[in-house]
Amino acid sequence: MITGLLVKILSIVLLIAVGIVLILGIGTLFKGGSTSKKYSNKLMQLRVLLQFIAIILLVAFAYFFKD
């Protein structure tokens, strides 16, 4: 069974992952040039995917592990 501590750690890891991808995407966008053309859109798509996963899991955690 998943414990409350594991749920909290997984939630924090998901939110940090979204933040890191967001910062990388914005940094690549501001850098410009061929790097921006190659990676910024893919990083933003990855951010949206990670946000979707994080929101679904956080809602599931809140529903199944309410105290």
Question: What this model shows, in words?
Answer:
By secondary structure, the protein is mostly helical. The protein has one domain. Helix content is 90%, strand content 0%. It has helices at residues 4-31, 33-64.
Provide the β-strand percentage band: under 5%
Sequence stretches where pLDDT stays below 50 over 5 or more residues: none
Secondary structure category: mainly alpha
Distance between the termini: 15 Å
* Biggest beta-sheet profile: none
Q: Count the strands? A: 0
Order of helices and strands: HH
Rg over alpha carbons: 15 Å
Name some characteristics of this structure.
67 residues, mainly alpha
Give a short overview.
The protein is mainly alpha-helical and 67 residues long.
Show the helix and strand layout.
Elements: H1 4-31, H2 33-64
Helix pairs in contact: 1-2
